[in-house]
Amino acid sequence: MRLLVYGAGVLGSLLAADLHEAGHDVALLARGERLAALRRHGVLLAEGHNSVVRRVPVPVVADPADGYDLIIVMVRAHQVDPVLQSVAGLDGDVLFLHAWAAGAEPLGAVIGHERVLLGFPARGGTMDGDVIRHRPHGFVTRRVPIQIGEPDGHDSARVGRIVRMFRTAGISARAEPRIDAWLRTHATVTVPLGQASAAAGGPAALARDPDAIRGMLHRVRRDLADLPTPPVPRGLAAVLTLPDGVLVPVVRRFLRSSTVTHSGLSSTSPATEAAELERLADQMRILRRAR
């Protein structure tokens, strides 16, 4: 399978490096200064705060082209529109592997509904100059898989092939038959949490403000209750009934944990993070009005 990873940020670079090291025919699409840096030294990776930097010579391209069996889009939600235009006339399936709450309809309307697959990445990291610092492979990375599914939920051969490809590359992945509901549920949590963190001045500051956490939980409950389908995973429905006295300490521990270091809450590009959260919030508002 010939692969193109469209987007050379943290997550796209990590995925392309993993696939390249596993022997897959993969290229990484980048633009501007990131393209120049990748052409100079490839993808540079370091585990956590380790001083050892590893170079992975992933092939890079500046523009998409025909001939790829699968294009894996790994950009921010607010960056999707120009990507759609650039891949509309190409061959191959397109896996949108990023936060998205608007469903497959606006994607398929541009590139063809039969080409669209939805998903969400599992790994995280931060940019340190040209070096991507990521969580070491271990129990957590194995337990949290990439989610992939057909927009209508049917069990397809192509989803099975992609899941097997990721797994043979050492990447945890699973088929999710309710991927649209999964992505919308994810947005109901990440948008209020991300915006509350930004307003407080970062996750550590938010952890010191129980009132702000309670306000964030109120928004999460509202958005969960407004979903057109039950939350996925189902366990998140507990947020609707558990009291703040239970949830606030859990959120505070999470905000102080090492997990946050490799999440969007610790983004080195706050303007980009804010733009994505606002796009997702708009998608959720449209979803509520449509009910």
Automatic annotation (TrEMBL):
<dbReference type="GO" id="GO:0008677">
    <property type="term" value="F:2-dehydropantoate 2-reductase activity"/>
</dbReference>
<dbReference type="InterPro" id="IPR013332">
    <property type="entry name" value="KPR_N"/>
</dbReference>
<dbReference type="Pfam" id="PF02558">
    <property type="entry name" value="ApbA"/>
</dbReference>
<feature type="domain" description="Ketopantoate reductase N-terminal">
    <location>
        <begin position="4"/>
        <end position="135"/>
    </location>
</feature>
<protein>
    <submittedName>
        <fullName>2-dehydropantoate 2-reductase</fullName>
        <ecNumber>1.1.1.169</ecNumber>
    </submittedName>
</protein>
<dbReference type="InterPro" id="IPR036291">
    <property type="entry name" value="NAD(P)-bd_dom_sf"/>
</dbReference>
<keyword id="KW-0560">Oxidoreductase</keyword>
